[in-house]
Amino acid sequence: MQFDNDLQSIQEMRNAVKRAKEAQAEYLSYSQEQVDEIVKNVAEAAYGKSLELARMAVEETGMGLVEHKKIKNEVGSKDVYESIKDEKTVGIIGEDRVNKVTEIAYPFGVVAGIIPTTNPTSTAIFKTLISLKTRNAIVVSPHPRAVNCTVEALKICSDAAVKAGAPDGLVGWISKPSMAATNELIKHRDIDVILATGGGGLVRAAYSSGKPAYGVGPGNVPVYIEKSAKVNEAVSMIVDSKSFDNGTICATEQAIVVDRNIQQMVMRELRNNGAYILNEEEKFELEKIISPAPGKLNPGIVGQHAVKIADMAGIKVPSDTRVLIAEETRVGKHIPFSIEKLSPIFALYTAESYQEAKDYCMKLLNLGGRGHSLSLHTTDDGVAKEMALEMPVSRIMVNTLSSIGAVGATTGLKPSLTLGCGSFGGNITSDNVSARHLINIKRMAYGIKSPSIPKASTSDLPKKIEKGNQEVEEIVNQVLKQVPEHKHEISPEKITEMVNSVIKKYQLN
Hints:
This protein has helices at residues 5-27, 32-48, 50-61, 66-84, 120-133, 147-163, 179-187, 200-207, 231-243, 263-272, 280-290, 306-312, 354-368, 381-390, 402-405, 461-481, 492-508, and strands spanning 91-96, 101-107, 110-114, 137-141, 171-173, 193-196, 213-215, 221-225, 253-259, 275-277, 323-327, 345-351, 371-377, 393-398, 439-445. The chain is an alpha/beta fold and 509 residues long. The chain folds into three domains: 5-216 and 436-445, 3-Layer(aba) Sandwich (Aldehyde Dehydrogenase, Chain A, domain 1); 221-414, Aldehyde Dehydrogenase, Chain A, domain 2 (3-Layer(aba) Sandwich); 470-508, no CATH class.
């Protein structure tokens, strides 16, 4: 019998989750030393296959550059490992002897990992490492256009983990991914937390699943070249960053904002670094390729070389062209050069003042990059601090390559392939997501203070009782006066008892 592809995908997902849950229950008993040995083995195995996985990813997706994807795989394995290897994630992880508070780590359980087509192997390695470090299991849903390379990365990680003593099934995946299976995965009763890296719709689905979720938003990153910048260095880094893996990292610069008094210097240096400046006619033709429908990015340009994209628009450019640039003045969903392009294409905005430069950056972020990142080139620390205070982003990269600086390759930021956008972007965290986001912490606290609890005042209680007794006695006497002496068949004591009973009844009500 031939089964429907969606049904096969869903059943495979259910089987993977079941195995992961069982494996994680066993993994829960592992010591910190055992966990660390497993994580080390996985990181080394993945790092050793960085080039092979990079080739697979480029061949399968048709996106990016092998040499650059290799670097991303190295960041996702070695750099991530180095950043988490000394963290305590098992048992007692902290003790405050002064305040007598002890912190104890415990895992979420089973992680659902959603992997994008733009970074299919590096993200899979990264999410596996931080899950295993925290005694979680993980089940991954690859992107359908990158399933083979993603699954291969996961097999490398799984084999290395098992070889180091991990339970089989701790790392699982869907080899025939479908949207139906992914949607059911993130809602599965045995999934405890979601790590979603992908399109906006998928991230929203993760947040609406009813599960704890770490999702990331889009990154329409502006780069501001402020008048005090070292123009030569700034432009060189910007072009290197934009052309890195053909612009597939979400933290890559998307639009250049430059002060008027250095604009000509910037244009000259852009050309010197392999940029092709489009004329108005060429800009018009490329706009149709970038966004065939208003606000919609053409997926066919994502991760493609600048020369290939120009050819798609019928534009002849030098063979060594690295980025395509068009001057722009407008920002909006209907302005193709102003949206996130995930390819080596830039809009260039010239600002007449510092305030106008900030306004351009704000508009670009509000269009589709709130909460993510901003890049800045300046030698004025005051400008850097002011931008950091005012811009609605979670990270600002100063005088470095934004694309790989944001993921921790050229900065002191935590190495990560999932970059939170905070409340600005509707995310639960503004951090570079790492191992610490996949543990819970319970706290044992001893009493260290002796509070003085005031007791209720009883000073006027006897007076109230005495007054109450007098009122009852008066009522009894009045009743007896109304009754002739020869008919005193009920004793005063009996009447008193009856009156008290009635009073109590009404007091209770």
